[in-house]
Design goal:
This protein is of the alpha/beta class. Helices cover about 35% and strands about 15% of the residues. The protein is built from 14 helices and 17 strands. The strands form 4 sheets. A 6-stranded parallel β-sheet has the order 3-4-2-1-5-6, with helices on both faces. A 6-stranded parallel β-sheet has the order 10-8-7-15-16-17, sandwiched between helices. Bound molecules: adenosine monophosphate.
């Protein structure tokens, strides 16, 4: 894998595609700086080598039109503070003004370009637009994992103009390594914990990871489609009736591949989908009509704990209960403590894709697991075994 460390940036201009798609409040202030902090190591490496940096990113969904609320000018101060260098800004990403700003850039300086998605050409992957962007740097660095699954101008097409002079940034290479650790080089036993609402959104992931894992823990809303397919009584629990055959087939595929599937044995059932519902613990396959399973039960958690603590490599995607409601967050929090303990004991743990990232952040586990992915969609597509265009473009 070709990374930043394969280059010396002395007197070179690095054109870095970052993911500064950060949340802004009504006063247009950055409310979560995670993505900016994640880009810092790549920027610092270039500056320390004696190079200069041109940063390009999108922000929000302006859909090809200028939208002042989505200007990257709003984040300049925050980026300056985090990087520790006064960042310059130019109110466009192509054209004469940008050329002047780029040409004036000195060693040690950083220039942030305006929102790429003010041009429809960014998302359509326009060749001419990509070529214009490519003129702003000597070496192209892709450090935007969050958009690596999109064949946009700045993430993919642009790479063609940098034959030999392109690489992965620190963040993107860490993401790629983390996925590889789970899917190809993970120390055994490898365990995947899949939760979340629906099995339909995880089918391709399950099918793809079966070859790589030893244990599959299924939790959350997905559980009930599997239990129903096995003939259990699931009451009013969430269930995809059109996916019962598929659930059976996934269980068979797992068995053929020697993967042990662990489903909940008991659940916290509620008499309505609400935090103030009445609650009782029931066997997972004997949930009465009018009741629905909203969190993992105590026996389930004991069992999941033993599997997780024996694992050397862990992938966690999706909560095992409706963690947004405090009364049904216990299972997801407990799972976090098991993954934390396994990690302390030397296991490699990757949390990625969708709501599990929100859950580990909310419950304070983000720095207690080995790696938390920054790219929801990109992580899911990687786990599905798809080749991401932004990654392929660097490797080509
Ligand atoms: P996903 O985006 O697929 O990871 O799904 C996450 C969502 O699944 C969260 O909003 C959870 O509240 C929801 N979820 C987890 N367990 C259940 C359940 N037993 N019943 C309904 N929704 C659930």
């Amino acid at each position: 894998m070709i990374t930043l460390d394969d280059f010396n940036f002395e007197n070179k201009r690095a054109l870095i595609r970052v993911d500064f798609n950060v949340p802004l409040n009504e006063d247009l202030e950055v409310t979560d700086t995670t993505r900016i902090e994640a880009a810092k190591p790549s920027i610092i490496k270039v500056l320390e080598d004696g190079g200069s940096v041109v940063l390009m990113s999108h922000l929000g969904r302006p859909k090809g039109a200028v939208n002042p609320k989505l200007s990257l000018s709003h984040i300049v101060d925050t980026v300056s503070e985090i990087i520790g260098v006064n960042v310059k800004f130019v109110g466009d990403c192509v054209g004469k003004e940008v050329r002047e700003a780029v040409t004036a850039l000195k060693r040690g300086e950083i220039l942030l370009l305006e929102n790429l998605r003010f041009y429809a050409e960014e998302e359509s992957g326009d060749l001419e637009f990509s070529k214009q962007l490519s003129e702003w740097g000597d070496i192209y660095v892709n450090d935007a994992f969050g958009t690596a699954h999109r064949a946009h101008a700045s993430t993919t097409i642009i790479a063609d103009y940098f034959s030999g002079n392109k690489c992965f940034g620190s963040l993107l290479s860490k993401e790629i390594q983390a996925i590889e650790k789970v899917l190809t080089s993970g120390e055994k036993p490898v365990t995947a914990i899949l939760g979340g609402a629906k099995v339909s959104s995880k089918i391709t992931i399950i099918e793809n990871i079966l070859d790589a894992i030893d244990h599959l823990i299924i939790g959350g809303g997905m559980t009930y489609t599997f239990i129903k397919a096995m003939g259990g009584e699931i009451g009013d629990s969430i269930c995809e009736l059109d996916k019962l055959d598929l659930a059976t087939s996934l269980m068979e595929q797992a068995k053929e591949k020697g993967v042990i599937v662990h489903l909940p044995v008991d659940v916290l059932a509620a008499n309505k989908f609400s935090n103030d519902a009445e609650v009782k613990t029931t066997p997972v396959d004997q949930i009465p009509a009018g009741w629905q399973g909203l969190d993992a039960g105590p026996k389930t958690l004991e069992h999941f704990k033993s599997v997780i603590l024996e694992s050397r490599t862990i992938l966690w995607n999706g909560p095992v209960g409706v963690f947004e409601m405090p009364n049904f967050a216990n299972g997801t929090i407990a799972l976090g403590t098991f993954v934390e303990e396994a990690t302390k004991n030397g296991a490699f743990s990757l949390v990625g894709g969708g709501d599990s990232v929100a859950a580990v952040k909310q419950f304070g586990f983000a720095d207690k697991v080995s790696y938390v992915s920054t790219g929801g969609g990109a992580m899911l597509e990687s786990l599905e075994g798809k080749s991401l265009p932004g990654i392929a473009a660097i490797l080509n």
